[in-house]
Write a structure and sequence with these properties.
The protein is mainly α. The protein is built from 18 helices and two strands. The protein has a single domain, classed as Amino acid/polyamine transporter I (Up-down Bundle), CATH 1.20.1740.10. The model has no long low-confidence stretch (mean pLDDT about 90).
């Protein structure tokens, strides 16, 4: 029987707001640079086909699972799994998996805010014309100076966290919905502006060939990266999509909406590549140098092409908006949970959670400067050390948080959610929430959630862990 639960936090005005919200959560720094780069390196059109297949087999089932759990319970992830597990006659301990996912989201936000702060810094730098006529060495030196200054990084990290906290503190309708109605159209408009500009560079077809030339010999090489990115690109595994699903109107089709979000996220990623790579080629750069050069290669490119200063400004505003929309999705699940559990006003909960993330984020800030010599999990040949100052190998603080969240907790969170929807909730509850008219389509969806997606996630988990 259908449920008529209502979220205490409010709800989206329409399914289009959910699409904006879910796409905003998914479209982040990786979508703007990493995905287009991966397309070019791992076989162009062959990688796109592999990626779309993996989205359908892994990403969409997990996203469906999160959304239907959230809408069924109308609560934060941890409370949603607890309530639905008890209703189905299972242990309330399933909520522990969701709670771990929400903690993971906060840890990701702690370093995501630092990187988002870099984009705010670069908006100012690009607007001042700091990169006009600069050499690659000068741009590289500029970036090195930025991350070497702990006070500068802390300032922008603080500002970015404040921007995210303000949106969350205002609530679902006045904060999230109103902001997303502005942020997501703005993101698309800026992408289109960059795309139109890339058509004038004389290198648009170079970008097209880089991204879409079909190289079947690279299909197997790119299969595992495609699986990993398909899982991570949709922002699943931490409860963000689940809490957004809790605000989704009952009459909206979950399956049609989630497929739309997956396609829109992929479209934005491809559009970003088509907009950016012609500019990279126009500046005489090699686009295969890697995904980590957003703050070096592209500033140099914009500094050495016609109207580059203006287009560079547009680009870094785009990056900031994409990072901002992702950041608020990471903060919302735990805010909703603590409001439900404590009854404390949303503003106070948001303040203390944001402060906690900000404080942990200082570890990432210092990883690039005053704590640069601090290494964890060091193997120096003489033995294994949990911590060692000045070691030649090992992970810095940022590396530890990144490894723990992206390679361990995210896959495990996704596995927990899809297994819960596929096996714990019960066939009829899932059928009722999905409201699929075709029995064959529902059977296929349940099969993907119960078998295909979990196996795919385990493969991603193993590959990420031993990478």
């Amino acid at each position: 029987m259908s449920t008529d639960k209502v979220s205490v936090h409010g709800g989206w005005a329409s399914r289009w707001v959910f699409i904006f919200a879910a796409t905003g959560a998914a479209v982040g720094l990786g979508s703007i640079w990493k995905f287009p780069y991966m397309v070019g390196v791992y076989g162009g059109g062959a990688f796109v086909l592999a990626f779309l297949a993996c989205i359908a087999l892994i990403g969409v089932p997990v996203m469906l699972a999160e959304t239907l759990i959230g809408r069924r319970a109308r609560q934060s992830p941890a409370n949603a799994l607890k309530v639905l597990a008890l209703e189905a006659g299972h242990s309330a301990r399933w909520s522990w998996g969701a709670f771990a996912g929400m903690i993971t989201a906060l840890l990701i936000l702690s370093f995501y805010s630092v990187v988002g702060g870099w984009s705010l810094d670069y908006i100012i730098d690009m607007g001042r014309g700091d990169f006009q006529g600069a050499t690659p060495e000068q741009v590289g030196t500029h970036f090195a100076e930025v991350i070497a200054d702990p006070w500068r990084l802390t300032l922008w990290h603080t500002l970015f966290m404040l921007l995210s906290a303000v949106v969350i503190a205002k609530g679902v309708v006045a904060g999230l919905e109103r902001s997303l109605r502005i942020m997501m159209p703005l993101l698309f408009v800026m992408l289109v502006i960059l795309l139109v500009y890339s058509l004038t560079t004389g290198h648009f077809m170079d970008g097209v060939h880089f991204m879409f030339d079909f190289r079947p010999e690279k299909l197997l090489d790119g299969l595992l990266p495609a699986m990993g990115h398909a899982f991570f690109s949709l922002s699943v595994g931490v409860g963000s999509i689940m809490i957004y699903g809790a605000y989704m109107p009952k009459q909206s089709s979950i399956s049609a909406t989630i497929v739309g979000v997956a396609l829109l996220d992929t479209f934005v990623s491809l559009l970003a590549g088509l907009a950016l790579f012609p500019i990279v080629f126009a500046a005489g750069l090699n686009p295969s140098e890697g995904p980590g050069l957003m703050f070096v290669s592209l500033p140099f490119a914009f500094g050495n092409v016609l109207f580059g200063q203006l287009m560079g400004l547009v680009f870094f505003v785009l990056v900031a908006v994409a990072a901002w929309s992702s950041a608020i999705s990471l903060l919302e699940p735990m805010v909703a949970y603590l409001v439900e559990r404590s009854g404390v006003r949303r503003g106070w909960v948001t303040f203390w959670l944001s402060f906690s993330c900000w404080f942990v984020g200082l570890g990432t800030v210092f990883s690039f400067n005053i704590w640069k010599q601090a290494k964890f999990f060091v193997n120096d040949g003489a033995g294994f050390h949990l911590y060692q100052w000045g070691a030649a190998n090992g992970l810095d603080f940022f590396g530890v948080i990144d490894f723990f969240t992206s390679r361990i907790m995210l896959p495990l969170g996704g596995l927990c959610f899809v297994m819960f929807a596929g096996w714990v909730m019960g066939r009829e509850a899932v059928r009722d929430e999905l409201s699929m008219r075709s029995p064959a389509l529902f059977a296929l969806t349940l099969f993907l959630m119960r078998y295909v997606a979990p196996i795919g996630i385990l493969v991603v988990f193993a590959a990420q862990l031993w990478k």
